[in-house]
TrEMBL record:
<feature type="compositionally biased region" description="Low complexity">
    <location>
        <begin position="52"/>
        <end position="70"/>
    </location>
</feature>
<dbReference type="InterPro" id="IPR035919">
    <property type="entry name" value="EAL_sf"/>
</dbReference>
<dbReference type="Pfam" id="PF00563">
    <property type="entry name" value="EAL"/>
</dbReference>
<feature type="domain" description="HDOD">
    <location>
        <begin position="240"/>
        <end position="430"/>
    </location>
</feature>
<dbReference type="InterPro" id="IPR014408">
    <property type="entry name" value="dGMP_Pdiesterase_EAL/HD-GYP"/>
</dbReference>
<dbReference type="InterPro" id="IPR052340">
    <property type="entry name" value="RNase_Y/CdgJ"/>
</dbReference>
<protein>
    <submittedName>
        <fullName>Diguanylate phosphodiesterase</fullName>
    </submittedName>
</protein>
<feature type="region of interest" description="Disordered">
    <location>
        <begin position="48"/>
        <end position="75"/>
    </location>
</feature>
<dbReference type="InterPro" id="IPR001633">
    <property type="entry name" value="EAL_dom"/>
</dbReference>
<dbReference type="InterPro" id="IPR013976">
    <property type="entry name" value="HDOD"/>
</dbReference>
<dbReference type="Pfam" id="PF08668">
    <property type="entry name" value="HDOD"/>
</dbReference>
């Protein structure tokens, strides 16, 4: 999605008044076919406010691989404690759930690399990103060589043009990530050609415009990080799963309170959606005692509200044979909608109607990416209530504040999240982050009792 975030207690064993909490946010990485193939984990390092002393000397857990300083009775360096808190957060279940089976790219500090606690990260699931500002000396190079021998893979991050650190680390890197927002455009063709010839996998970061995606694609880049796929101008490259007029009619119907008969009639105009929803009904275990064979049975088995919600999300499904957990736009819309629902339920006097409105706001906030044109022109065709339209277009009201919050999470803008939470009391940054992580995990599967999302068939 979207960027997803969490604040998790670091299991460092430090004193209560100095408990460290690491924060994480995710940003999608797409392959050349436009499908999800990984997430970068944006780390917000916890701030050390404790004091070094006897309590800190036992800070590292027994299985953390702590260096000898703790064993010798010396207080660990605060930067080392922060590094361990980050590593501990990365291996927790909530972060794994938000990755939905995809590999994680994570920026690692010098302290993280030199601490044996990093060996707790599964080498097959994490790509270790080296920032251009990292201090490169013989000690660091030797450690990278050692970790490389344990099958850890490295990424040169935020590359704009070669420098001394780049040259020293390049032999040990499998991937090079080039920052499209800052790299000189005239240098890109030569840089891409040389790195591809050297066998490096190239990632373009900051790809928020369709033109940048097309440039990177033509230069042979292998991966793309940014939100170009969620912009209206990207719709020309996306094969939607039903004719435009049928999707608009269905959106209009779902914005109200359709009866079973109305929903059945409109869904029959969308064969791909019917097929997928039939699979959902039969995989969910809700149709007890017999196999669901008709659309009306599927609607009755799952309930109009529930099936309408998944129909809303499936409107974003790419028309190709694509696993929905790998479809970046659908995952972005699903995560945003679920976050909105979870967040508003924490606010005073919010009931089922408010939760439904929040979910709907999140879903429809991306309709321009499917249909093209301006968001306002697309929303004008729908029969959404005024508060929903005002929230989507102008970020007005509580729904607008929540929509701004999830958008800030997608960017990893922690300062903005803090400012918004001050207006959304009693919500805190920690709660918002936890709900966003849960929303990302929820979006990865169609039903809690199902094995996962089926594939869309032509």
């Amino acid at each position: 999605m979207t960027t997803i975030a969490i604040e998790t207690p670091g299991q460092t064993g430090v004193t209560d008044d100095a408990q460290l909490n690491a924060s994480f946010a995710r940003q999608p990485i797409l392959n050349r076919d436009g499908m999800l193939c990984g997430y970068e984990i944006k780390v917000r390092a916890p701030e050390w406010t404790g004091q070094s002393g006897p309590a800190a000397r036992s800070a590292a857990p027994a299985d953390s691989g702590a260096p000898a300083d703790a064993e010798a009775g010396r207080a660990p360096d605060p930067a080392q404690l922060v590094a361990r808190a980050i590593i501990d957060g990365l291996i927790q279940g909530p972060v794994r759930g938000a990755l939905t089976g995809h590999p994680a790219y994570v920026d690692v500090s010098r302290e993280m690399l030199l601490d044996d606690a990093i060996l707790r990260l599964p080498a097959e699931r994490f790509m270790l990103e080296l920032a251009p500002t990292i201090e490169v000396d013989e000690t660091l190079v030797a450690r990278i060589v050692q970790l490389h021998g344990r099958r850890y893979r490295f990424v040169l991050d935020e590359v704009t043009q070669p420098n001394d650190a780049f040259a020293r680390l390049l032999p040990y890197a499998e991937v090079v990530k080039i920052d499209f927002t800052r790299a000189p455009r005239a240098l890109l063709p030569k840089l891409a050609s040389v790195l591809k010839s050297a066998g490096k996998l190239l990632i373009g970061s900051g790809i928020d415009a369709q033109a940048d995606f097309e440039t990177a694609h033509e230069l042979g880049f292998d991966r793309f990080q940014g939100y170009f796929f969620a912009r209206a101008h990207a719709s020309s490259t996306r094969r939607v799963s039903a004719p435009r007029h049928a999707l608009l009619n269905l959106l209009q119907l779902l914005a109200g309170e359709p009866t079973v008969a109305q929903l059945e009639a409109e869904l029959k105009l969308n064969p791909v959606l019917v097929m997928h929803l039939m699979k959902l009904a039969n995989s969910s275990g809700l149709a007890v005692g017999h196999k669901v064979t008709t659309l009306r049975e599927a609607i009755n088995a799952t309930g109009t509200d529930r099936i309408a919600r998944w129909t809303q999300l499936l409107l974003y499904a790419d028309g190709r044979k694509v696993a929905l957990e790998d479809d970046p736009l659908l995952q972005l819309a699903a995560t945003r909608a679920r976050f909105m629902e979870l967040a508003i339920e924490r606010l005073p006097e919010a009931g089922r109607d408010e939760a439904d409105a929040a979910f709907l706001t999140g879903v429809f906030s991306f309709v321009d990416a499917v249909f093209g044109g301006s968001l306002e022109s697309t929303l004008n065709v729908l029969t959404l209530s005024r508060p929903l339209q005002a929230a989507i277009l102008h970020r007005e009201g509580v729904l607008g504040l929540l929509l701004s919050t999830v958008a800030a999470l997608e960017r990893g803008d922690w300062d903005e999240i803090g400012t918004l939470c001050a207006r959304l009391q009693p919500l805190t940054v920690e709660q918002v982050a936890q709900m966003a992580l849960a929303a990302g995990a929820w979006a990865g599967v169609a039903d809690r009792s199902a094995q996962g999302l089926e594939r869309i068939e032509d």
